[in-house]
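Help needed: design a sequence for this.
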């Protein structure tokens, strides 16, 4: 289903399943993923819940945003969708960056009223502990930008734009960054550098967190921060599972989530 959006974004692809009268669940995939990857999650709960499985802009069958977006813009679109399609608070199941968006919504003064529960799978959003390699790359990037900072504004902007499209700049970025261009490259930068350490303690809804002990994208440290800062949060460690723990250990994920939904 393609949904029109008055938020300023024309098309949003949504896979809708489950009874119309069922309690609503919104499923949000991670960066570089899609509703297709999250389909097993949607199908697992569509027997009794009304499930909305979204392709976020720039992913799956949803087109790119018209300008570079960040977490607030993605969250605003999801919030708008919830307002338009449900008449009660929703549970959000968010994987990775989808979890980051869900956390932002649950801490936002206006949006949080529409959130009933959170189920977060290896969520992003907490600042990771950085390696020495990260700081070396950051120092090189700052050194490359420095000569342009002293130029007049127009020349500075042109120079920095050229730098961001240069081969050396691309090599400094992650593999995800190097695969992107245009609007989605800047969107990626804005998104991955958006952290919620200072606000996650404002999450007031029951929160269930899953993390695979072989996850190399987010760390146990980041999950511990969430578990400790969110007043009503629990952490389930999925043994021998990676970043896509809901696919690696589907039975454990579905059983734990079902129990959580029925008892919170």
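Sure. Designed sequence:
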């Amino acid at each position: 289903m393609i949904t029109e959006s008055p938020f300023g974004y024309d098309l949003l692809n949504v896979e809708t399943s489950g009874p119309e009268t069922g309690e609503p669940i919104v499923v949000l995939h991670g960066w570089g993923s899609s509703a297709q990857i999250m389909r097993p999650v949607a199908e697992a709960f569509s027997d009794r819940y009304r499930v909305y499985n979204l392709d976020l802009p720039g992913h799956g069958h949803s087109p790119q945003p018209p300008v570079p977006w960040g977490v607030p813009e993605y969250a605003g679109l999801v919030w708008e969708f919830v307002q338009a399609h449900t008449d009660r608070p929703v549970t959000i199941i968010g994987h990775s960056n989808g979890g980051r968006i869900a956390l932002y919504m649950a801490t936002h003064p206006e949006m949080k009223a529409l959130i009933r529960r959170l189920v977060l799978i290896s969520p992003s959003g907490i600042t990771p502990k950085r390696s020495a390699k990260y700081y070396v790359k950051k120092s090189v990037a700052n050194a490359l930008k420095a000569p342009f900072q002293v130029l007049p504004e127009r020349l500075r902007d042109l120079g920095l734009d050229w730098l961001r499209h240069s081969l050396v700049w691309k090599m400094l970025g992650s593999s995800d960054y190097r695969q992107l261009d245009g609007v989605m490259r800047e969107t990626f930068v804005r998104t991955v550098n958006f952290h919620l350490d200072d606000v996650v303690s404002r999450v007031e809804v029951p929160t269930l967190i899953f993390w695979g002990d072989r996850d190399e994208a987010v760390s146990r440290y980041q999950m511990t921060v969430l578990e400790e800062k969110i007043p009503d949060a629990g952490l389930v460690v999925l043994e021998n599972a990676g970043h896509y723990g809901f696919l690696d250990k589907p039975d454990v994920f579905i059983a734990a989530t079902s129990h959580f939904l029925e008892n919170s």
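The chain has two domains: 2-127+195-263, 132-188.
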